[in-house]
Amino acid sequence: YSEREVYSGIGEHAVYVASAARRLGVGLALLEALAVAAEDVGLYKLTSRIFSTNTASIRLHEAAGFTIVGVQRHHGQLDGVWRDCVLVERLVGEAARARNGADAGDGDGA
Question: pLDDT tens digits for 62-71?
């Protein structure tokens, strides 16, 4: 994700599923396996950018426990058209456990 030490526990990812394998649970299985592997190597967060028009991928990530945390406007061009990107992230490992404990413990979600 970044060479800066402060971000050393963050992994950026992209998952592409062949059209013939879509809607068969392959994408969800890949994202779940990725989360397990990320925790195994000591990462605490997975993040990705998804074109805002790719609603299937956004829904898939949400189903896999990712949260939409923002939008980057005109972040890239595809076929000569500016595209917005939706930012998604999922905490894994200790960060996820700490977050879930905070959500359950104090009621304010912070």
Answer: 999 999 999 9
φ, ψ for residue 88 (rounded to 5)? -125, 150
How confident is the model over 16-30, as a mean pLDDT?
A: 95
The reported pLDDT for the residue numbered 100 is 85
Determine the average pLDDT of the residues in 33-49: 97
Q: What angle do CA 64, 68, 74 make, to 5 degrees?
A: 125
Q: Which of 100, 47, 93, 39 is nearest to 69 (CA)?
A: 47
